[in-house]
Structures are given as structure tokens and as C-alpha cells.
Amino acid sequence: MTHLSPDPHLSTPRHLEVAIIGGGQAGLTLSWHLKARGIDHLVFEKKTAMHAWRDQRWDSFCLVTPNWQCDLPGHPYDGDDPDGFMKKDEILDWLRRFRDKLDPPLLENTAVLKVSRRAGGGFTIASSAGSFTADQVVAASGGYHVPIVPRFAERLPADIRQIHSADYRSPQSLPEGAVLVVGSGQSGAQIAEDLHLAGRKVHLAVGDAPRCARFYRGRDVVTWLAEMGYYDMPVERHPLKEGVRDNTNHYVTGRDGGRDIDLRRFALEGMALYGLLQDLEGTRLRFAPTLREALDAADRVYNGINASIDRHIAEHSIDAPPPSVYAPVWVPETEPESLDLEAAGIGTIIWCIGFRPDFHWLDAPVFNGAGHPVHHRGVTAEPGVYFLGLPWLHSWGSGRFSGIDRDARYLADRITAGTAEVRRAG
């Protein structure tokens, strides 16, 4: 790999045609395209390349999408199980080999402190490794920056360990006692399962995340949806338009070859389910009476996706096993509205309620009131400022290995045009 560092003896900052902020798969994929076009660039990474896959995933983590969807430029999945789901170590090895093939111009362990427009054009980049200038800047650091933890967590008893999903590693790494998992998105549902399978008593505060089947009518549901074009649908064609970017991903797992995650079945097996967590009074947590509707809503999405597959099969006369409809295996008799932490023996709370973006370092008028970037396919209204690696940047596929290359290629074309313009002017 090409490791770079600034020369402290230079009287003027090093100038780049393009600065890429973020050394994850998105930033490195864009680097691949810029190298192919002969555009001078540098990838800034505050830790190490693609560190989040190592540092923010638990030990039993595996992909929830089939391996065949892993397709970075010049580096498709090359294992012997395209329909399987790579485990954490396999993902890290695959990504390491991509990085080694690419040999990117990469500046690791370097935090970008501020990017601002400079007089005369382009940008000034202040970093922990010195100053740089660039004609164009790409924020490729993703959108999951600051772990979300509710403010009332400060009032929880000091003897209860609190961690965010990004810091969870294994059931064995937690103190003794029951575990409260807050949030039922992909991370929350899978962590709850991990603990449940290890024999830990799990209490789960269920949110509004939808779910989907792992396999249906003889194929992985992802394979069906890909064939139906769901991952290629652009934001502007989605019924929710840009609102789809706020959606929570469906919970499902690739564990042990892949299967559904059915919270109702977990309840039959002893997991305690609750509605949305609202507040804390002493040692007692309060929940909204939303559990029944949350489970029903998740099942409606589950059956709705399967019904769309049924229509696709019928319209194209595809030979497939017969259809089916999921029927609840458990229904809550009551809506539990409180939980006494001490009486329940809760030793750990795991917050699985997501992250918020933090682009404080980017001084540019490209954000909405919630701090989210405003863009079209990563291109902002501010000349020379781009985003890459965001969920639903362009389509559902943007948040998957299968869609990164397309998004990066699109931006590379725009960046190339901008570089040509700067070169002509210079």
C-alpha cells in the first residue's frame, strides 16, 4: 500500500486535484476510478483503511446479503460460496486484498479537522498531519458517525454497564445478568439473537424496523429483489422520494447459512419483548404500548415483499415452489409498560438505536436542518463538493457492496469533468 505523509519542510501546503475524506470501501473505490483516470488525489483516513469492519462489528457478525453481491472494481467475490454470507474475518480478508490490489494513495491515522473554501478557488484542508489544498473534495466517511444514546441514560444505575452496538463483541464479554437490547433494527435484532443463542436472558425494546424473509419460494429474497430491479431503483422513483433515506433496514440474518429473524419465536423461547423505550423513573424503565403494532407492521412488510415476489413469478411464468403467508406464532397478551432493572437482574444495556451524521469539519452550505447532506447522486449544489458511501445515495444498492462501484464511477465522471476544467483554466 502507498502510505503517504506530508513534508513538514514545505513552505506551501501540498496541492491535490482531489481530496477524498474517508478510507472505507467507498473512498477506496473512488480512488480506484481516479487512479484509472490519472487524477492526482489523496485518501485521508483518521484511523486505518476500512477499520469500521473490524472495530464496529461483533465477533459473530456476518453479511446479511449474499456473497455474490460483493463486487468492488477489479475485485468481485472470489470464494467458493457465492450464495453464502461471509463472516467477519472473511470480510476483512476480502477487503484487505482489495486494498492491496488498489495500492491507494492513502494517509492513515490522519484526522481532517476542517475543509473550507479558499480565496482563488478550491479548498483548504486542515488535518492532524498538516495543511493541504485541493480543487475538489469528496466526503466518503459514510453517515454513521456519532452513536445515539438517549440523554436519560445518564440517570441509569452506575452498576449497569452501558454500551452501544458498535462496541458489542460477544455474550462472553458482558457482565453476568440479563441484558436489555434497545432497538430492533439489523444490529439490535442480530445482537439479541446472538445473546439469546448463548443462553443469556434477553429483554428487547422493539422499534419500528421492518423484516423480510431470508428465503422464499426456492431462492434468497435478495436474489429475487435484485432480479426485480429493487436495488437499482433511484431515490426519485421511490414512492417516499428522499424520505426513504430515513427508513430502517429490514432485519434478517446470514448466520449459519441464513435464516429469518422472528421476534415472536424468540418470545416463545423466553425473550421478553417491549414497545418503544420512553423514559426512566428511578430503576424502572417505561415503555410505550407499541409492541403489538410493531410486530404486526414488521409482518406486513414481510408478507408484502413475498407477495411482490409472487407477482413477479406469475408475470414471468417462473417455475418455483408454491407461495405462503407468514402467520404469527406468538401474540403478546398484554403490552408491558415498565421494567424494574434491579428486579429483572439487568447487568447490561446495549443501545442499538443507530448513529447520527457529523460533518462538522466540512464548512460548506450543503446540509439541511438535520445536518444531512443535500445532494443528487452525491453531487451537491456547491461546486467541487461531493458525497459518497451514504445509504440511498442513489438507490437501495448504494448501501451495499454491489452498488458502491456504480456510485463511485458516476462521481468519478463528474470529478473528471471538473478536473479538466481546472486544468484548462490553469
From TrEMBL:
Keyword tags: Oxidoreductase, Plasmid
Pfam families linked to this entry: Pyr_redox_3
Gene3D superfamilies the record matches: FAD/NAD(P)-binding domain (3.50.50.60)
Signal peptide positions (record): none
SUPFAM superfamilies in alphabetical order: FAD/NAD(P)-binding domain
InterPro entries: Auxin_biosynth/cation_transpt, CHP04046_FMN-dependent, FAD/NAD-bd_sf
Stretches assigned to coiled coil: none
GO MF, one annotated term: monooxygenase activity
Official protein name in the record: Flavoprotein involved in K+ transport
Species name: Tistrella mobilis (strain KA081020-065)
